[in-house]
Amino acid sequence: MKYSVYENIRKIRELKNLTREFVAAELKMSTSGYGKIERGDVDLTVSKLIEISKVLEVSIEFIFKFDVSVFFNETTR
């Protein structure tokens, strides 16, 4: 489950058409530093998760429970 949070952050950012550079600037951090968060290369603090949720304009709960398949109907016909 650890990596799903990081992946969800990336997917939500992409669905909102936000660049890594924009999110990193809003968080007052480097683009490479933010990239490490999305890749799960660094541990995410609660305070940083709160900041990210504000930039993405979603709740922390949404980040944890996000399921991209809700947006794309992947049922076979």
Which short descriptors sum up this protein?
Cro/C1-type_HTH; DNA-binding; single chain; Helix-turn-helix transcriptional regulator; 5 helices; mainly alpha; TransReg_Diox_bact_type; Lambda_DNA-bd_dom_sf
As a percent range, the share of helical residues equals 55-70%
Task: Tell me the number of strands.
Answer: 0
**Proportion of residues in β-strands:** under 5%
What can be said about the biggest beta sheet? none
Compute the CA-based radius of gyration: 13 Å
H and E order: HHHHH
Structural class: mainly alpha
- Mean pLDDT rating: 89
Gross geometry: globular
Counting H and I runs of at least 4 residues, what is the number of helices? 5
**Low-pLDDT segments, ≥5 res:** none
Q: Report the end-to-end length measured between terminal Cα atoms.
A: 30 Å
What does this structure look like?
This protein is mainly α and 77 residues long. The chain contains five helices and no strands. The termini are far apart. 9% of the residues are buried. Residues 9-63 form the HTH cro/C1-type domain. It comes from Flavobacterium soyae. This is Helix-turn-helix transcriptional regulator. Keywords: DNA-binding.
